[in-house]
Amino acid sequence: MNADGQVDLTAGLMARYETGPLTHRTSLVFQAIPHLSSNMEMQVPNVPVSKLSHDVNFKIYKEVYGNVGGSITMYSLGNGTYWTYNGHTGVSSPKTGTNVVLSTEGD
To answer: Are the C-beta atoms of residues 43 and 36 closer than 8 Å to each other?
Structure first.
């Protein structure tokens, strides 16, 4: 008898901290796929997706808030390793329900 098993696991770390008037949020997320062979021995796990992101939030005026952030993501897809990035900046006002975001992304 020959059998294979596969389980996807996603794990991450997130830190939220303040430096003066700025609130930071940094996260690191991994997706891992451990592979079990037919003899049920654990093989080296494949980590196809890893993502690092950071955002900074700040108050601009009474009810107006700003945000600047970005992320990089690595995809390991068997036929190569690929990187993507995202950068964004925005202004929002919960009082008026207004939200304007400028974003750029690419690979």
So the answer is: yes
User: How do residues 35-64 score in pLDDT, each as one tens digit?
Assistant: 655 555 555 556 678 999 999 999 999 999
Q: What is the 3-state secondary structure (H, E, C) of 5-72?
A: EECCEEEEEEEEEEECCEEEEEEEEEEEECEECCCCCECCCEEEEEEEEEEEEEEEECCEEEEEEEEE
CA atoms within 13 A on the CB side of 9: 10
Q: What is the rounded end-to-end Cα distance, in angstroms, of the chain?
A: 43
pTM over 0.85: no
